[in-house]
Amino acid sequence: MLYDKKDKMFEGGRKLPVMEEFYTLQGEGHNMGSAAYFVRIGGCDVGCSWCDSKQSWNPKNWPTVAVDPIVENAANTPAKTVVVTGGEPSLYPLEYFTNELKKRGIKCMIETSGANFLDGDWDWICLSPKKNKPPHSSLFMRAHELKVIIQTEEDLLWAEENAELVNDNCMLFLQPEWSKAEENMEMLTNYVMKNPKWKISLQAHKFMNIP
Fold first, then answer.
1. Which residues contact 40 (CB under 8 A, 6 or more apart)?
2. Euclidean distance between CA atoms 172 and 27, whole angstroms
3. Domain ranges in the chain?
4. What share of the chain is helix, strand, coil (3-state, %, to 5)?
5. For 25-59, how does the pLDDT look when each residue is reduced to its tens digit (9 = 90+)?
6. DSSP secondary structure string, 134-188?
7. Which of 5, 61, 122, 123 could make an SS bond with 93 (beta carbons 3.0 to 4.6 A apart)?
8. How far is CA 148 from CA 128, 191, 200, in A?
């Protein structure tokens, strides 16, 4: 872990190393196409080779900032929904942030590998487990959505292993790794037809050319 969540620099979650914040449409998984205010937190202790946000990995590049103005920015958008992403947001204390958002009637969602214990009050947890640092055991029963990135056919076994651990109501998605999407699409299509508990997630925001 890069930090202890009780580190004084975070002031109990009143400050976080926020990389960027922006209003856009969700591009992946169950909520694809829905408007939301995205808050990307810098710092990652997982480090996937195919990550499309590698600039977020080094937390030293993203000094901590107060989250209260971010809450107000989110409250001023029509969607009244926030998606916290990274980097790896489970590194940080998030309870204060979600509590302040909830006070303003804002729905709280997160996209996480689950590599660390996750605090905060979440309406939607998208768990995207990674082999090089598997999820904290407490995340499986809390996840609303399991989204597994598929780079090779062998990753389907990893997907099934994680699907065995989530709750019965958790939605299951297989998402082709972007650089391998074209060559893996037939394989994934056939797999989902044989195993219809799964759905395919695509990175629609890349097709739409939006953040």
1. 18, 19, 20, 21, 53, 56, 85, 86, 87
2. 16
3. 8-208
4. 30, 25, 45
5. 999 999 999 999 999 999 888 877 767 677 777 87
6. PPPGGGTTT-SEEEEEESSTTHHHHHHHHHTTS-TT-EEEEEE-GGGHHHHHHHH
7. 5
8. 5, 14, 10
**Residue type at 183?**
E
Beta bridge partners of 20: 40
Which residue type sits at 116?
N
Q: Which residue has the tokens 């995207």?
A: 128
Domain 8-208 class, CATH top level: alpha beta
Please provide residue 84's backbone torsions phi and psi, each rounded to the nearest 5 degrees. Answer: -95, 130
Residue 84: strand pairing partners: 39, 110
Digit-by-digit pLDDT tens for the chain (211 residues) are: 566 787 888 999 999 999 999 999 999 999 999 999 999 999 888 877 767 677 777 878 888 999 999 999 999 999 999 999 998 999 999 999 999 999 999 999 999 999 999 999 999 999 999 998 999 999 999 999 999 999 999 999 999 999 999 999 999 999 998 777 778 899 999 999 999 999 999 877 666 676 7
The two tokens of residue 154 are 């062998």
For the entire predicted model, the pTM comes to 0.93
